[in-house]
Write a structure and sequence with these properties.
The complex is a heterodimer of chains A (116) and B (115).
Chain A: E1 5-7, E2 10-13, E3 19-24, E4 31-37, E5 43-50, E6 53-57, E7 65-68, E8 75-79, E9 88-95, E10 106-107, E11 111-115
Parallel strand pairs in A: 2-11
Antiparallel strand pairs in A: 1-3, 3-8, 4-5, 4-9, 5-6, 7-8, 9-10, 9-11
Chain B: E1 3-5, E2 10-14, E3 19-21, E4 24-26, E5 32-39, E6 46-52, E7 60-61, E8 64-69, E9 74-79, E10 88-96, E11 104-105, E12 109-114
Parallel strand pairs in B: 2-12
Antiparallel strand pairs in B: 1-4, 3-9, 5-6, 5-10, 7-8, 8-9, 10-11, 10-12
The chains are: A mainly beta (116), B mainly beta (115).
């Protein structure tokens, strides 16, 4: 069964450094998402992406964040200058628009980011 | 803004028994979707079951069923004949039917299955 994959599984970085988290969505999916979960807190929506542009973003997704689909397979989340509070598990998800009913979002295993 | 609350941080159940996980939500919308996702240790979240708010009938998927009480804004998950493989973190999530596709998650409930 196709799965969403994410790399790396763990990333440690110094405060102020740039990080790029990578995701490979399921191949026929058209909608892509990033969520994050700070330790002990809820999973929070960051951004959704469709047709090569952001369709929705949360208040968390400020100018330090960007997303890109650089080729036909990868979907990346870039944090330009990491802060301590960016330490979290980051989940990528993808979905396909169904012909009826609601779509299911398929999640990747996550990247655990630690900012020191 | 919509919110989802799971009031049980942890639950445990004996293998083969039945357990119910609670979820309540707050919304002013009349049409929406509700989901239960399961996240086994070190694995990705997978969809367990979903419910369209306009459907009165409770969704069922094999051993998993929901009790959807729209007026009470309650969406509990019942797992029958619990198995060791059911041990996981369970997340309740809400999605609007209009525009926004984002999922709004609860805090999660960690379910332990005792052999």
């Amino acid at each position: 069964e196709p799965e969403v994959t994410q790399t790396p599984s763990h990333q440690v970085t110094q405060m102020g450094q740039e990080v790029i988290l990578r995701c490979v969505p399921i191949s026929n999916h058209l909608y892509f998402y990033w969520y994050r979960q700070i330790l002990g807190q809820k999973v929070e929506f960051l951004v959704s992406f469709y047709n090569n542009e952001i369709s929705e973003k949360s208040e968390i997704f400020d100018d330090q964040f960007s997303v890109e689909r650089p080729d036909g397979s990868n979907f990346t989340l870039k944090i330009r200058s990491t802060k301590l509070e960016d330490s979290a598990m980051y989940f990528c998800a993808s979905s396909v628009q169904p012909t009826s009913g609601v779509e299911t979002q398929y999640f990747g295993p996550g990247t655990r980011l630690l900012v020191l | 803004a919509q919110t989802v609350t799971q009031s049980q941080p942890e639950m445990s159940v004996q293998e083969a028994e039945t357990v119910t996980l609670s979820c309540t939500y707050d919304t002013s919308e009349s049409d929406y979707y509700l989901f239960w996702y399961k996240q086994p240790p070190s694995r990705q979240m997978i969809l367990v079951i979903r419910q369209e708010a306009y459907k009165q009938q409770n969704a069922t998927e094999n051993r998993f069923s929901v009790n959807f009480q729209k007026a009470a804004k309650s969406f509990s998950l019942k797992i029958s004949d619990s198995q060791l493989g059911d041990a996981a973190m369970y997340f309740c999530a809400y999605r609007s039917s209009q525009g926004a596709q984002k999922l709004v998650f609860g805090q999660g409930t960690r379910l332990t299955i005792n052999p």
